[in-house]
Design goal:
Protein Transport Mog1p, Chain A, single chain, 15-stranded mixed β-sheet, 30 strands, disordered N terminus, alpha+beta, 8-stranded antiparallel β-sheet
Length: 563
């Protein structure tokens, strides 16, 4: 049996989630496994145990490193996609009801959402908030209602080892699992007499114009967790299988009070789904990786030396205010980046260049290092309490790129508290062998050994150097690279699109996506690769600054500076 690691997220109150069950994607026999029944969390995007849609937060260290390290990502497909009405094919099962309104009556976001890893493009309601994550190499996207409480649509992309399994099989097992969660027993005999769950509708062959194969869809009503009386939660699933070993699952979760409205939005969003031809998708990906590999072959020691000759650069992260006044902007953090020559041992931040331990030898090769220093404010809680996150990362590579190593240390403090939690990650690579060890408080060390592809691999140091390389060479168009991601603790395909900024002679735009399901981020660079401005996720801007100016801004706003 294939176990899709997808937890059901129950929207129980104004905000909050529970991870409640697994969804089975094959019809093979196997032992049933219970899912993680995580506790309600104060914000749906901050629960550390949520399995598949936590706003890109697989762990605190993952969040901060993904937020700060993102240097170049890939472009999203920003073309409009026609919205097509779902049509059920003939089937013995009860066909789904037609959505109450036409696609034109629904206010969709201007740009479609793209999940490149499966060639999926679809429309989402205007104002919805998109959060992405990656669990066990499966991309997961959560689309939250604008009020963060009315509904949530989750899109998962699991793979299976059983090419003969069908969406119908997956739907059958998922329904059985859902109903088994709320079994009824006779109060006297304790024998099972049924389930409190109800299957509202089901179709086995749902035809969507943008899909070459039919999907399976069903809706189930279950008692709402944490709520009394007759309150119920509705779960809808539309299961596609666009390739023999690839599933795509659209999941709707809402309260019974919001069911009709949420269902209409959900079905029209699913109806807009289109899947790119698998062979074309593979060819496009292969060509982009080949272009990326060719670009990396033009990286020279002169590029490294030029970076090492520069002083540390600082960048301010903030959310611009509607007034446009700098003093009204919301500060989110800052980071400093510098490059220097040294040896592998210097990823240990306690070892300085003049230390005997830093001497180069056979086991301690010389090379280039990048040092990231960052501070981030993570939200505000009750009484204005925030999390203060300090990050120090050092990354090493040999000139021939055959060896690399890195060390990341993150310290998290609650606002106004001296107590802290420390998270670390260390990684090493020799050739195509990689080992990554992460240490989280209260948990055993985790050791991973990701598989390094033979071509198109980007080292951690090169991630920071890539903008200057791309702008120096001026190779316009799309490139792709494989790179280890601290956030997902996996090697992912990332894409970059370089273009000359219209009307300028020395300004380049880079639209980047560090994982295929991640949101695109936009950067403007000068010819020398120096950043002019970046538009990051959630409306966050990044601009070059000085540490003195940043400290002055933070002091004027009563924010913590220094240690």
């Amino acid at each position: 049996m294939f176990l899709l690691r997808v937890g059901r997220v129950g929207v129980d109150a104004a905000f909050g989630i529970r991870v409640e069950h697994w969804v089975y994607m094959d019809g093979q026999d196997g032992q049933d496994k219970k899912g993680d029944r995580g506790a309600n969390c104060p914000k749906p995007w901050s629960h550390p145990r949520a399995l598949f849609w936590v706003a890109g937060v697989d762990s605190p260290i993952a969040y901060i490193m993904d937020f700060f390290i993102t240097a170049t990502l890939a472009t999203a497909l920003l073309t409009q996609t026609p919205t097509n009405q779902s049509k059920p094919a003939p089937t013995n099962a009860t066909p789904p009801a037609t959505p109450a309104s036409s696609p034109a009556a629904v206010n969709f976001a201007e740009d479609p959402l793209v999940v490149d890893s499966v060639g999926l493009t679809f429309r989402i309601p205007a104002g919805a908030r998109v959060q992405t994550s990656n669990i066990a190499a499966a991309n997961n996207v959560a689309i939250l209602a604008p009020d963060l409480s009315s509904w949530v649509i989750n899109v998962q992309t699991p793979t299976t080892a059983n090419p003969t399994s069908t969406p119908k099989d997956a739907a059958e097992r998922t329904i059985n699992d859902l109903l088994a969660r709320v079994l009824l027993r006779d109060s006297a005999t304790k024998e099972l007499v049924g389930s409190e769950g109800r299957v509202l509708e089901r179709t086995e062959k749902l035809v969507v114009e943008g899909s070459a194969t039919p999907a399976a869809r069903f809706y189930v009503s279950l008692p709402a967790l944490g709520r009394t009386g007759d309150a119920r939660t509705i779960y809808g699933y539309t299961i596609f299988k666009p390739q023999p070993t690839q599933y795509v699952v659209f999941e709707l979760i809402c309260s019974d009070n919001n069911y009709q409205k949420a269902r209409r939005l959900y079905e029209l969003s699913v109806a807009s789904a289109t899947f790119q031809d698998p062979e074309k998708l593979a060819s496009t990906r292969q060509n982009a990786v080949a272009t990326g590999a060719a670009l990396l072959s033009r990286l020279t020691t002169a590029d490294f030396d030029a970076a090492c000759a520069e002083p540390q650069r600082w960048f301010r992260l903030y959310e611009p205010a509607p007034s446009g006044k700098p003093e009204d902007a919301a500060e989110h953090g800052y980071r400093g980046l510098r490059f220097f020559k040294g040896t592998r041992a210097q990823i240990d931040m306690r070892i300085t260049a003049d230390s005997p331990k830093a001497a180069a030898n056979e086991t301690n090769p010389a090379g280039y290092l990048a040092n990231l220093s960052a501070r981030l404010l993570r939200g505000t809680g009750l009484r204005g309490v925030y999390q203060l996150v300090d990050v120090e990362g050092v990354y090493f590579t040999t000139p021939l790129r055959d060896q690399e190593a890195w060390s990341i240390r993150m310290v998290v403090k609650e606002g106004g508290s001296e107590k802290s939690r420390v998270y670390t990650e260390t990684g090493t690579r020799g050739g195509r062998s990689m080992t990554v060890i992460s240490d989280l408080p209260g948990q055993p060390n985790r050791t991973l050994m990701p598989s390094v592809p033979p071509d198109g691999y980007l080292t951690q140091v090169e991630r920071f150097l890539l903008p200057r390389l791309m702008t120096r060479i001026g190779l316009e168009g799309e490139t792709a690279f494989y790179c280890y991601q601290t956030k997902t603790q996996a090697i992912s395909l990332r894409r970059d699109v370089l273009a000359k900024q219209p009307g300028t002679a020395d300004v380049w735009s880079i639209v980047t996506r560090e994982r295929e399901s991640a949101e695109p981020q936009k950067y403007l660079y000068k010819n020398d690769g120096s950043l002019i401005r970046a538009e990051l996720e959630d409306g966050i801007a990044m601009e070059p600054s000085t540490l003195e100016d940043i400290n002055a801004i933070w002091k004027s706003k009563g924010l913590p500076v220094g240690k």
